[in-house]
């Protein structure tokens, strides 16, 4: 768990290795029904939110993570109309999904309503009003329960969860991936936050073993997000259409231009390159190559 000295926040996600943030100003701290929430100001990273001792998001680098978990699957799909976000209480994922005019309906299932309320108040630059989008259905519930019981179907499912500890653990379970597969329309895509493989290789191995039997095309893609320490972060990819991961640069460029979305990290070349995994990750997931 984290420890806060008079003016420092020490993340202790990993034994014997971690990052610290000077807490210029503590904006809010509360033990919610589900987790310990802290939001503070840091001179370098802007406003920072942590849950149960783990840094969740910072104003400075959230754009990398949120752009890569939304524009990659939505532009690869090409005609996503119904998007499901699991978790994502800070609103950054919702903000990026809502930029896609082609998306007609967004369901967001967040277990902790206090995270939504506090992020609306103290991290307004994350959601930027997206919680008022008329396409949004916000459900305060356990994402596992939702995907296990809903009759709705989705074109893209984005799991923007905490790490597999506490309430987030169930979002890395076999049942969760199976239920997500059930909730996908034909041609649907599931993407999930899947940790930094250099530090959490077991997480990648476990997810690979679970996606392998569920999706005709499963893989991972990567982006370096500074405050998810320990190297590049992996995003799990499960697609019902094997062509989606092999789109040409021209196709992606046309779709990206057509979306009219201005990004700070995502572009078609980054999209394609992100799926190139290093040998140690391929070996860990028993994939001979990036094909
Ligand atoms: N970007 C962060 C990361 O990569 O770790 C995730 C940020 S987002 C704040 C994580 C959200 O997942 C939190 O708001 C948390 O409340 C939510 N969450 C955790 N377990 C959940 C569950 N079982 N169902 C729905 N939401 C959940």
From TrEMBL:
Pfam families in UniProt: Spermine_synt_N (PF17284), Spermine_synth (PF01564)
Domain of life: Bacteria
Gene Ontology molecular function terms on file: spermidine synthase activity
Reactions listed under catalytic activity: S-adenosyl 3-(methylsulfanyl)propylamine + putrescine = S-methyl-5'-thioadenosine + spermidine + H(+)
Subunit structure: Homodimer or homotetramer.
Function: Catalyzes the irreversible transfer of a propylamine group from the amino donor S-adenosylmethioninamine (decarboxy-AdoMet) to putrescine (1,4-diaminobutane) to yield spermidine.
Name of the protein this chain belongs to: Polyamine aminopropyltransferase
Native source organism of the sequence: Pseudomonas frederiksbergensis
